[in-house]
Specification:
The structure is a homodimer. By secondary structure, chain A is of the alpha+beta class. In chain A, 33% of the residues lie in helices and 23% in strands. The first copy, chain A, contains 10 helices and 13 strands.
Chain lengths: 345, 345
């Protein structure tokens, strides 16, 4: 929350506030005909398919403001929606943001949040075309809708994986989850003793992965440049296991993933050791990596093997073989979706 | 909230719940290529402009579950978004719904809500193409995004009103606000004495207008059939005064509205009398009517005068004349936007 000057939201009112937060927004995409300021935004996509994704994020469930600066929260809220568009092999073009805020938030807080959203949008050439700012009785609620495009024959669904396809993943996994664990630990320590400052030295990468995820536009562009259209693709928000099982279930296939091939950063490994957690479990079930998981035909093996920051981790099988992890010692363990489930007891 | 059988949401989990609520949804529009079930919905609009509107509705701010059945809430949440698309002179095509629910809600509650959304969508040929169901620490949060289309030269903005245009409004005003007042009164009575049952006899129209608003597709179709393209249009969600001032401010004009011409239903008048409220104030500033307010060139006067359920209430002036109400006794009163403002102190 903002420290220093504090301007109450009531001084501007609803329309004044929206105007204040959006006045410097200038659309950059020719597809954006009209943005903020009317009953609806007006867009035009004559030759492409339109992709629409939406997210509702609630304080206390999806984020904790004790360790999430509002600018980071705005950045991340936008980024995870851009990631959904990339996961369809599309390019995000527009975004709408609605916020419900309680009285403990001031205008400077919302400016911070919007600055984070704007930064994410600038990096990905996305226009903010609408939204709403209203009040909430208790916590902060964030609703984001992202609109993207893809050529008609380029959209990639979850349901196109085929037996013998190879499974690829971008970046590395488990770091965001470790960042979250670290934040939770330091929060507990910090709340216990006021004079203790959190110590994050040598763990910056974990924090960055948790607080400032990056949607993988570069991978979508690299795939296009290499002439590869994945047979199935998803972004990893709930954990590799959970997403793999979605792809296999929707494609009616099984899969084999090699434990030793799952990409894991050094800091993630150190942290798992420190927390006495199983590293592979963290990488398989830790969420919020926002890396891309995709399958390509076996014939594309050489091409994807050469791609920067992409790793082949396994292959698709017939459905009757089920989904399994091949451990370092050669055993097969059935994959379970233990990913994050906000509706669990 | 649901009475009788109660199935806890945790028995299904996030993906099971979404599947359960959306399994019977079949897209009816050819523009909907892929709906619920992937990272994003896939739509196609080769020859039209795309309209996007979004709303975030919070329990305790935008609705009170004490007197709002969940099915009505679902219906209304969808309807107010369809209304925004009609207000652009467009036709709604797709909708996404996200809900954040606390543990006091059961699966039957969400079924009720979805049934309301589905009913509204069926009536307007709109496809449910996505959404999310997640948890909330406290109340219910509803996020809806609606996507519509309009021919390129048919989109109507707020900023096109011109001096001498005439101002029209559909239906009647103030009834939804009176319905809300009535509900609030009965809630207070009801909470005081457990044995008192609310008495709504003769006031059904007010309740219906508040609980079950109807988006005016018929007016958009009638305008098209009559060959009229409004110069400016909005739907009345925050009150006639407030919306008129938006049109005048964005069009750089003034306006004159005749008090005696504002359409008001008999039940609204009776109720205002009972509450000892000024009837015109209710009609000017009461929100949630979801009627259409639009301006047309003077040359279209005869055509709009013949339109069913449309009334001419005034005219647009040069900006220096300001926005004013001409009272029954011929005085001019400056219009003030006293409409609903969720961010007011």
């Amino acid at each position: 929350m903002h420290e220093g000057n504090r301007t109450e939201i009531s001084t501007l009112g609803e329309f004044g506030l929206i105007k204040h937060l959006t006045q410097d927004i200038k659309p950059v995409n020719p597809e954006t005909k009209y943005g903020v300021g009317d009953d609806a935004a007006v867009l035009e996509f004559p030759n492409q398919q339109v992709l629409v994704t939406t997210d509702l994020l609630m304080e206390g469930v999806h984020f904790d403001l004790v360790y999430t600066p509002l600018k980071h929260l705005g950045y991340k809220s936008a980024m995870v929606n851009l990631s959904d568009i990339y996961a369809m092999n599309g390019i995000p073009k527009q975004i709408t943001i609605s916020l419900a805020v309680s009285k403990r938030f001031c205008i400077e807080d919302l400016e911070d949040f919007y600055n984070g959203v704007k930064l994410a949008c600038q990096l990905h050439n996305v226009d903010i075309v609408g939204g709403d700012t209203t009040s909430s009785v208790t916590g902060l609620a964030i609703s984001i809708t992202c609109i993207g495009v893809a050529d008609k024959d380029k959209v990639v669904y979850r349901n196109g994986a085929k037996d013998t396809d190879i499974i690829c993943v971008s970046g590395d996994l488990g770091a965001a989850y470790m960042g979250l664990q670290l934040m939770e630990r330091e929060k507990a320590v910090f709340q216990g003793e006021k004079e203790v400052q959190p110590d994050f030295a040598g763990k910056e990468y974990l924090l960055e992965r948790f607080l400032k995820p990056e949607a993988r536009r570069d991978i979508v562009e690299a795939l296009a440049a290499a002439g590869i259209k994945p047979t199935a693709m998803m972004d990893i928000s709930d954990g590799l296991s959970s997403e793999l099982m979605h792809i296999c279930s929707q494609s009616n296939t099984g899969c084999r993933v090699y434990e030793e091939r799952i990409p894991i950063d050094y800091q993630t490994a150190v942290m798992a050791e420190e927390f006495n957690m199983n590293l592979s479990t963290c990488a398989l079930n830790g969420g919020e990596d926002y890396e891309l998981l995709f399958t390509v035909p076996l014939t594309a093996h050489d091409k994807v093997s050469e791609m920067k920051d992409v790793k082949v981790i396994g292959y698709i099988t017939k459905p009757e073989l089920g989904c399994a992890l091949i451990t370092r010692d050669g055993n097969e363990l059935e994959l379970k979706a233990q990913g994050w489930n906000p509706l669990k007891e």
